[in-house]
Write a structure and sequence with these properties.
It contains 8 helices and 11 strands. By secondary structure, the protein is of the alpha+beta class. It folds into 2 domains: 104 residues, Transposase IS200-like (Alpha-Beta Plaits, 2-Layer Sandwich); 154 residues, Transposase IS200-like (Alpha-Beta Plaits, 2-Layer Sandwich). Strands 1, 2, 3, 4, 5, 6, 7, 8, 9, 10 and 11 form an 11-stranded mixed sheet that branches.
Length: 283
């Protein structure tokens, strides 16, 4: 079955920023010489320009290179790490003679203009903000939301990375039709949770409000935000097509969602805090 939404027919608005730390093998002080630091900074700029990364801040310490990078939705932290470290290793070997420079793993944290906690509070306030349920029956609105009580800022781990990687996604119904009543929204929340479980993503918060939906989801470093957003859109489109095809037709909807989405990163720290951290002389 062909997906309704693809990278070629769906647009996005985005703000995606990541704090990377790439460590030397065995945490050895391989980056002490000024010429090595200069080479790393120069080649990071060159790599970023060639691959359309937006390098916001860089700091090179004796055993770790740290960067704050803004990426596009189709760029994943793992892929960026492979490209940057592979290119830097080649240049350092050729220019300085340093061999086998990198450790196997890496660290990455998603950051944004506000923290993940602020996003979670915002998502959980959507029903009240939009007055989508009567004020005398606030518990009814709980059916259309999910809140994971676990701290979303925790650092998770796999065999190659330590990471905090959370994205905030917003979908809007086609024509802004108020199609998602609480009963329908409850089913959608449950279905999205099952999709996240299957993909090994963490659903932190989901809230569905009549004509739009917010999700805060924890991804894995190999996942890019665009693919995650499209997967959630297409899965829910298939789900609704099976269950509510007649109702969608009666509402003059050819699809559940508009062919667009917003996606932004969030984490324990803000962009401003990470910039301040990298500019400080703390090592």
């Amino acid at each position: 079955m062909q997906p309704t939404f693809t990278a070629t027919n769906t647009t996005s608005a985005y703000q995606l920023r990541y704090h990377f730390a790439w460590y030397t093998r065995s945490r050895q002080a391989r980056f002490e010489a000024p010429e090595v630091v200069t080479a790393i900074n120069e080649h990071l700029l060159d790599i970023s320009e060639r691959h359309e990364y937006h390098l916001l801040e860089t700091q090179v310490y004796p055993s770790v290179a740290r960067t704050l990078i803004s990426l596009k939705p189709n760029q994943s932290p793992s892929r960026v790490t492979n490209i940057v470290r592979g290119n830097l290793a080649k240049h350092l070997r050729e220019q300085t003679g340093i061999q086998n420079v990198w450790s196997r793993g890496f660290f990455v944290r998603s950051v944004g203009n506000v923290t993940a906690d602020v996003i979670r509070q915002y998502v959980s306030s959507q029903y009240q903000h939009h007055r989508a349920v009567p004020e005398h029956d606030p518990e009814f609105g709980q059916l259309a939301r999910f809140h994971n009580p676990v701290d979303a800022s925790q650092v998770r781990r796999d065999s190659h990375s330590a990471y905090e990687y959370n994205i905030h996604i917003v979908f809007v119904t086609q024509k802004r039709k108020e199609f998602l009543d609480v009963t329908v929204a409850e089913e959608l929340v449950g279905y999205w949770r099952s999709v996240c479980h299957k993909k090994r993503w963490v659903p932190w918060d989901i809230e569905v409000v009549s004509d739009h939906a917010h999700l805060l989801v924890g991804l894995r470093p190999k996942d890019d935000p665009e693919r995650a957003a499209l997967s959630l859109m297409n899965n829910s489109e298939y789900f609704f097509g099976r269950r509510y095809r007649a109702a969608m037709r009666d509402s003059d909807l050819t699809a559940l969602w508009q062919p667009s989405f917003y996606v932004g990163t969030a984490g324990a720290a803000t962009t401003a805090q990470v910039k301040s951290f990298l500019r400080s002389d703390h090592f």
